[in-house]
Write a structure and sequence with these properties.
Helices cover 49% and strands 11% of the residues. The chain is α/β, with parallel strands linked by helices. It has a seven-stranded parallel beta sheet. A two-stranded antiparallel ribbon has the order 2-3. Helix 12 links the parallel strand 6 and strand 7. Helix 8 crosses helix 10 and helix 14 packs parallel to helix 15. It is globular. The structure holds coproporphyrinogen III. Coproporphyrinogen III binds next to loops.
Length: 358
Amino acid sequence: MSMPDILQNDRFLRALRREPTDTTPIWVMRQAGRYLPEYRATRARAGSFMSLAQHPEFACEVTLQPLARFDLDAAILFSDILTIPDAMGLGLSFAHGEGPQFARPVRTAADIAKLAVPDMDGELRYVMDAVRLIRRELHGRVPLIGFSGSPWTLACYMVEGQGSKDFATLKALCWNEPKLAHQLLDTLAEAVAAYLIAQAAAGAQALMVFDTWGGLLGPAPFREFSLRTMARVVEALQASEHSHALPVILFSKGAGAHLAALADTGCAALGVDWTMDLADARRAVDGRVALQGNLDPAVLRASPAVIRREARAVLDSYGNHPGHVFNLGHGITPEVDPELVKVLVDEVHAHGRILRGG
Ligand code: CP3
């Protein structure tokens, strides 16, 4: 970027630094997605989800769509966590109406030995081009979040070859061949760190790691296979000139029991799902990190009055402490009425302002 734009709305970044804000910032996981008719229209023009993600003009267009409708405090790069395994040669596709599929899943020692960290200026250049274009088109309106899957969550899909309710194929590898599992996770930790550092160099202003399936693990395996590799990623980010000053958000879904250990990685913030009270989450981390969350996404199927009440309950649970970024506890779902997202965003800002005396 030649002339970095002055950031006009820094609520999100201030909250991640646990500095006071006039009101509580909000963004929504999967805010660019199928619940928006304009997203579905752009996807139809692009032909497929992967074509959307791989053409920076399309990725930029859909990233900005939710910002045109709602008063959101952050943009998130439109892409997917599975770009890394795709770039490693596993052959990603999305069958219509179904989840992700890999043509060449990773199963054997030879498969794992063959995996190499992709070239961020080669196979994954389209992601960095999208980050650069989005930063330019945002004109500093709100900060841009870059993201990756966690090594554990990427390994879940790579070994299973598709989605699963328990990802037992990877779990079996961890029990039977822990050395191989570690080799796979170590390669992925290196790839995830390089990917996030490249996004930071391209202009991402905060970085989020989605550990969607960390919560499938028991306590000891969580520490060994999920937490340990995320800690390595955070360490690598802090050691890089491009990303050392950027806040990192770790989101391990279903891992409320591990918040204190996750905070010990040195991340700036933790995502929290809706199964936990934010007041308890805050006590668990002793105010050492910011928290992001945690409205049950299903609340967006309720009436406006209920959405407002539940949003206030989440805000009140966190209270008037610095360091809260409002979000859903997981991604928004396709059947949600976009008008109800506007109800949510406006209520969070209105009630957050009262709560914070802004
Ligand atoms: O938040 C955003 O707006 C940024 C975009 C984003 C997408 N995927 C776009 C997407 C982000 C941050 C992701 C992350 C992602 N992808 C995760 C982790 C977050 C989470 O939900 O826990 C995971 C597990 C994936 C893998 C993945 N990608 C799945 C399982 C699917 C199919 C899910 C479904 O609902 O059909 C995808 C596809 C995908 N990624 C879509 C979008 C908008 C839907 C594709 C479509 O348009 O049909």
